[in-house]
Amino acid sequence: MTGIRIDADELTMALEDNSGMAEWYLDRETGEVLRASDALLGEDDEDLAARIEADPKRYVLIDPIPSSTGFEVMADFVETVADAAARRALERALAGRKPFRAFKDVFLDYPAERENWFRFKDAAGRKHAEAWLEDNGIEAKLASAAKKSEPRD
Fold first, then answer.
1. Which residues contact 22 (CB under 8 A, 6 or more apart)?
2. Cα–Cα distance measured from residue 121 to residue 109, given in angstroms and rounded to the nearest whole number
3. Any bridge partners for residue 54, and if so which?
4. Which residue of 9, 49, 109, 143 is surrounded by the most CB atoms within 10 Å?
């Protein structure tokens, strides 16, 4: 199936969503990434459920990547950090309690590394998205929407 375009950022977000609050699907025909939430059952979710039930081959469930993979991405990033103090702080964050939150908190003191992290994380997310597409036999073009003005985690 060639010709469909998929928003790389949306697919990455779906792959990284380990919240358990929603299920994500890819529409094989349009390339749209769709979110169905059990917590917020509304008309849109019921409509999506009906569409999936009516044409299940059209929609692919997007299982999130394990949080351990996200941890590995963080650990891989730490190896690239040239600033020794920042690298030590990030290593401590990964070794401590609540490593995901602690890792993000380190960037309050190292804003330049924060920007490096976003670039690194985006590249890793794109690789995961490409691998997911390949694993699911989906031929598509990943498109990036430039969202530079939005706040980042």
1. 35, 36, 37, 38, 39
2. 19
3. none
4. 9
